[in-house]
Amino acid sequence: MEGSRQIDDRSAARQRADAIYEEIRNRICTNRYPPETALHEVELATEFSVSRTPMRRVLSMLEHDDLVTARHGVGTIVTAVEPERLVEVYTVRMILAQAAGDYFRLPFPPESIQRLLEVREVFLGLDEGDVIGFGDANLQYYLPVIDLIENGCLREMHRTLFYQTTRMWLLSLPTMPWAETMAAVADELEELVRVIKLEDPIGLGLVMRNHIFMSRRRVLAGLGIAPGDPRNPV
After folding, report:
1. Dihedral sign from CA coordinates of 12, 16, 19, 21
2. Alpha-carbon distance values, 60 to 45, 48, 74 (Å)
3. Which residues are bridge partners to 217 per DSSP?
């Protein structure tokens, strides 16, 4: 009984650490913690009512995801994504999206369509300039689609790279025409719904690939890097 209790305690501790990791990751990827934000281990441990040991593990997981970095004499800092690195990550995301077509689970769950339609309305209902609201909606938009991928390794690669790039959307968003951008995202969601209704996994992978391509162009243009610039390939 004692051994079983210890296993249960360790399992509960891991689940708690995972939940904290997901919460802080979401804060980073919705720019609640923008690049260069210092994350203080003691303060976070106090906020989440845990010791410093699990918080240190959480920060290590975030560093593995390239979302934070440890700076000597400063602490843990939320990373930025340089344009060159951004292009590389988006390019890999496009390759993975197209490859995912062979690994989507069929039949698609009926609730996927309803969820995407609800998120579409969220995007269209955002107040102009609500960057954090956009970030929250973007997580609701993309993560459930990634979850449709049956291959676990491919799914986790998608998710990790998505988290690296999604926050750059939010840095670019203030320079984008708001209504036009929301309409474009709404159109993307409609297209996803169409191919899901058709039960077309290959088509879904291609649609995702094209959406990632357009996201890359919008984000880089929002950062002042025009199409045709070597850092913004066509």
Report:
1. negative
2. 14, 16, 16
3. none
With a cut of 70, say whether residue 45 has pLDDT above it: yes
Assess whether the previous peptide bond of 227 is cis (omega < 30° from 0).
Answer: no
Q: Examine the domain organization and report whether 60 and 96 are in the same domain.
A: no
**Helix or strand or coil: residue 81?**
coil
CA-CA distance, 128 to 115, in Å (whole number)?
Answer: 23
Query: Exposed, middle or buried, 113 (CB in 10 Å: 0-12/13-18/19+)?
Result: middle
Predicted local distance difference test score (pLDDT) of residue 223: 79
Q: Which amino acid is at 198?
A: L
Asked if 55 and 41 count as a contact pair (C-beta separation under 8 A), the reply is yes
pTM: 0.87
Q: How confident is the model at residue 7 (pLDDT cuts 50, 70, 90)?
A: low
Do residues 36 and 80 lie in contact, with contact meaning Cβ atoms separated by under 8 Å? yes
88 and 70 in a single domain? The answer is no
Q: Is pLDDT at 2 greater than 80 in this prediction?
A: no
Residue 227 domain-assigned (yes or no): no
We report the CATH number of the domain holding residue 45 as: 1.10.10.10
